[in-house]
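Our collaborator T.R. sent over the components below with a one-line note: 'Predict the complex.' Nothing else. No constraints on interfaces, no templates requested, no preferences about which chain binds where. So this is a plain run: every listed entity goes in together, and whatever single assembly comes back becomes the starting point for the next discussion.
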Amino acid sequence: MKNVDLVIIGGGPAGLAAAVAARKNGVQDILILERDSELGGILNQCIHNGFGLHTFKEELTGPEYAARFIAQVQELGIEYKLNTMVLDLAADKTVTAMNKSDGLFQLHPKAVILAMGCRERPRGALNIPGYRPAGIFTAGTAQRLVNMEGYLPGRRVVILGSGDIGLIMARRMTLEGAKVLCVAELMPYSGGLKRNIVQCLDDFDIPLKLSHTVVDIQGKERVTGITIAQVENGKPIPGTEEHYDCDTLLLSCGLLPENELSRAAGVALSPITGGPSVNESLETNIPGVFAAGNVLHVHDLVDYVSEEAGAAGEHAAAYILKGEHAAGRTLPVRCENGVRYTVPTAIRPDCAGDTVTLRFRVGGVYKNKKIAVYLGDTCIFSRRRPVLAPGEMETVRLKADLLRGAGDAVTVTLEEG
Amino acid sequence: MEKRELICIGCPMGCALTVELDGGAVVSVRGNTCPRGDAYARKEVTAPTRIVTTTVRVTDGVLAAVSCKTRGDIPKGKIFDIIRALKAVEVAAPVVIGQVILPNAADTGVDVIATKNVEKRG
Amino acid sequence: MHDIIIIGAGVSGCACARELSRYNADILVLEKEEDVCCGTSKANSAIVHAGYDAANGSLMAQLNVEGSRRMPALAKELDFAYDQCGSLVVCLSEDDRPALQKLYENGVANGVEGLRIVERDELVTMEPNIADTAVAALWAPTGGIVCPFGLTYALAENAAKNGVQFRFDTKVTGLHPLPGGGWQVDTDRGSCQARCIVNAAGVYADTLHNLADAAHPMKITARRGDYFLLDHTAGQHVRHTVFQLPGKYGKGVLVTPTVHGNLLVGPTAIDVDDKEATATTAAGLDEVRTKSGLAVKDIPLRQTITSFAGLRAHEARHDFFIGEIAPGFVDCAAIESPGLSSAPAIGAMVAGIVRDSLQLKENPAFDPIRKGILDPKALDFAARAELIKQNPAYGQIICRCESVTEGEIIDAIHRTPGARSLDGVKRRTRAGMGRCQAGFCSPRVMEILARELGVAQSEITKSGGDSKIIVGTNKDAF
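Returned assembly:
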């Protein structure tokens, strides 16, 4: 196997954007390893529109958005291998992978970009009691069956979880002829985008039951019914049970970064996001191993994935072409007052370009707050936000110059606005 | 004077909009942060429209279905007419993005176009 | 007329089938489900008990110790996953010492080898996550863990290789003695006859028993056990099977590594009326959650990938019931825990009874060897590379979580008896058994099943019967 400078694990939106950026920044030998039979990742099954408003200034569907990046990858002559599974990433960046035509092979790249995306939290992880019949799907699995294969996985559907995929699938199932009886959400707010609640539920009179969860699944072979109940402090309230005759339960209860390879390589992971802890260059604790997209932290919009992955591609190119940064001092990034996590978790001001992008999510719904960023005791950024919600990712761009002042840590916080 | 509360779907911001109507005519729109919000509110209370995205069957393709969408907005009330019109549609691979799958779908004047390339099988 | 009909294709029925295939006999196994290993055998603790628990002098004690002793050689012969990791029964209070001593003595009397009481200091080095309250434990080095599916499929495949026929989706509805000896078995798919019946019907063994010998009725109660299965990341939390000695703090649950590197926690013991009631309940899962922490601390239950429940065939005397209760009718009933551990001995015992009853002759062509499904992960780099060169299907990963290849799935489908459903593939290959619980791979496995079995993808089920995955095509209702 010919050796390459940069291996990108994953050919979804993050991997594609990272590859394009790395090539544009001078890396010649790039190889994308994609486990599916086509490039584009999860975008291929996200056939709804709403992608690309930031990147392309127009509203595209998932496959269309993916196609634009795939076209760039092909025009730039970037190599990729499909149906190829990476089996192992070693601490020395040795990549072990296999497919049917090349067999089992190893690569020893100078740099690696982790772009494996995320997976859905399954029923087992939710501890829903009841039987384990056919008819229980994660929303993403149902999405693949309906959108790529044209198969209907159910006719009367209850959806647990109001994450975006759950909302989108409520509409998709309805449009393909199923009856969606309700969407139950454990939290008192939806984890999805507001526009999806309007367009996917309200348009079709599908009730959204906040502070509700599934307490029983009936049916030995195929689902025959679902019982939901209202919850208080995470516990079902006896007497509030509602029964639905249905044949399907879709689960949209959160996404988890897919970091088995990262963990095996010794990449330090954040206990909050489940993704790698990275610095301002999106580099993990292993020099030359970068991460971007949903493998790093789950994004709300693919546009931000592309942007972040583009940055990872640039940084990987700099690493390959110029070698490691002389690091200088490192500022840890701390979260306070409802800020759940940040990406990055550390900033080396001397390694940053003109700006440092900080992304984060909040842990609850907040109104009329101000996002504030401090270097030591000095406020270096603040912006008013009328509404902040866990379903939406926040982005802050800091001028790198401001990070060169006094102070040994950066703090991101919410203040009364 | 009638008041309607809406959530703007123009972008992921999801601004909470308040529209005042007088006899079906829009008097004012508040709560929007950009002109698109104003336009959305005016349209949503008078003639709401949507983009429809769905799939149609593919013959001889590497996939059994291809995703498609209405090229532009269609009246909200026509969503299921378009779905029904697409039920019998089958398209032969290869399919390319932008290819017209169904012209003038359900007499909306809007074409349904493919949103994915599907290569021929084999 | 068949020589022998075995009713039930769980681990007991398959062990009987395999041991009986050593003889020249026409053997048929009837199973109401679509596959082998669909009842108690698929949802249990996957433990090979050393044999100190069962009351001295009971059949259970005898067969447990013997089954456990046979297991290592059987695992080699039939190529299934087994690990003699040893087990600990943890005593949480000085008050309970007498009970620990009694358990030790019972084990010694049962003939369990290597038993020893270990004190806290040693216990902590053996099991760093042991509870702070643990004072001592009974150490049983011959205790082990096994893949319950692997064991059952291995027995079934070896039986089939030696001529045993399996008929699935066939439920026994009636049983009649024939005038000239032997029995007629009525099923929902016609009748068949045999000189001898083996009743290995698990939780339904009482129904068959009572048809054969109404004068001495049996009652089997389905006793439900709820479990949590944790991800590989939690698999090292304990190194041995850890039981809690029933005592001052009540009766606990076991915490054990599995042969595939997961952590298993459970079970409850809840008697249920419905013998199909394998649903977990919130109360049951809560009970496991609470009790799991008694003997082992800091169990990362957040890494649970699935929870499930199985039913044990409990009979009031709490002993196995094996014997020829009517001419040509052999019970293999009331096989509750440690039934899995005892299976090799149960099979041998039942085979002996049937052999004597029918005067069977040895089958000189009997082949005791069965090769399991090849696991490419167990090969070194060069061997795995060569395998893929020989058969590219081993180069295509289908289940990402458990790294299962298309080659393994195709193998599972074409075995006898082979996989016909998603669960059948899952139990044989572990595809869909991992942290995403088949989210990614189920559409792919459906494709492979459809292709290899020559049926439409829409016909593929999760576990036979009405458990279809797909109910229609887009827009078919408009």
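Summary for T.R.: Chain C has twelve helices and 23 strands.
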